[in-house]
Design a protein that fits this description.
This protein has about 300 residues and is mainly alpha-helical. The protein has one domain (about 5-175, about 220-290). It contains nine helices and two strands; from the N terminus they run ααααααββααα. It has a two-stranded antiparallel sheet. α1 packs parallel to α4. The two termini are about 25 Å apart.
């Protein structure tokens, strides 16, 4: 899905650039005094840092790579001992991570550069859903269908830890509640026996409805994206990996390597705080003029 809609966006951007339509571009983006004020330029820069931080959140990419490669490795290992053994999982993960991150980076950079060349300083936040393109309408619709399929699957994957936490916590606190703990066998045609839990059904349905309504009420895509990126970038992509590396490698405290790793961690913390400030400011400005249940760019 990612490859499909990214390729469509890139292809349409290249076609727009090749068509010779003149757009206003500059090395530093929007012009102070023409498009925005000096303070707005600074805040937008901070917001952009948050968007970049979200794109750089390797922890989310790692989950997808790990989920796809580990079952394959275990299946291959368990089929038969006489089959040539798989490479060690750490080597397979290193190779898969390198390929996955390199491919993702390539598409991000191309979308950013060619998208800016196509739309200039008026580039929408999302040139597929932000009315950057109108024709051919069937191709835009297909790309947006790919986005929907991708996000529906990603929503399921990333919601599972929260679902599991709430359901486990509820079972431990109310073990005698049949509504929470009982599993009801339902015979589904062409499937077999499916065990239905009413608490799981009600809780997960309510969660999906609430998140969908909140998303429609506050449709500030880029601002929320920057805020999420700012909140997840430092702890998940920088702090915890650095601390785990220091513990695993037993890096001596106050050694040259230890000092520079700590400096990197603190610098990235400052970047996250700046990005969060920019995104919050963007949300505040958007709330002043927004109308509920309408798309905002």
């Amino acid at each position: 899905m990612s490859f499909a809609y990214s390729s469509i966006g890139l292809g349409l951007s290249i076609a727009k650039v090749a068509g010779g339509e003149h757009v206003r571009t500059s090395l530093t983006g929007v012009t102070v005094g023409v498009d925005v004020s000096g303070s707005e330029k600074v805040w937008r820069t901070f917001q952009a840092i948050g968007d970049i931080a979200f794109a750089y959140a390797y922890s989310t990419v790692l989950i997808e790579i790990q989920a796809s490669i580990f079952p394959t490795l275990h299946l291959h290992t368990n089929i038969c001992d006489t089959i040539k053994s798989s490479p060690p999982e750490n080597k397979s993960m290193k190779r898969a991570s390198s390929i996955g991150v390199s491919t993702t980076t390539l598409f991000y950079v191309l979308c950013g550069l060619i998208g800016y060349a196509a739309f200039g300083n008026d580039a929408p936040g999302n040139f597929l859903t932000g009315f950057g393109f109108y024709e051919p309408f069937w191709l835009i619709d297909f790309a947006n269908i790919c986005i929907a399929i991708h996000l529906i699957g990603a929503y399921q994957v990333f919601a599972q830890p929260l679902f599991g936490f709430v359901e486990g916590w509820s079972s431990r606190n109310w073990p005698n509640s049949k509504f929470i703990t009982s599993e009801h066998a339902v015979d589904v045609p062409f499937y077999g026996i499916y065990y239905l839990n009413f608490f799981r059904l009600v809780w997960r349905t309510a969660y999906v409805i609430i998140t969908a309504v909140v998303a429609m009420i506050f449709p500030f895509f880029n601002d929320f994206l920057g805020l999420i990126g700012a909140g997840s970038f430092w702890p998940l992509t920088v702090y915890f990996p650095i601390e785990m590396h220091i513990a695993q490698s037993k890096t001596p405290k106050y050694s040259f390597r230890w000092i520079w790793l700590k400096i990197l961690s603190w610098v990235c913390l400052v970047v996250s705080l700046i990005a969060a400030a920019g995104s919050i400011q963007g949300l505040i400005q958007s709330l002043k003029t927004y109308k509920p249940f309408q798309t905002q760019e």
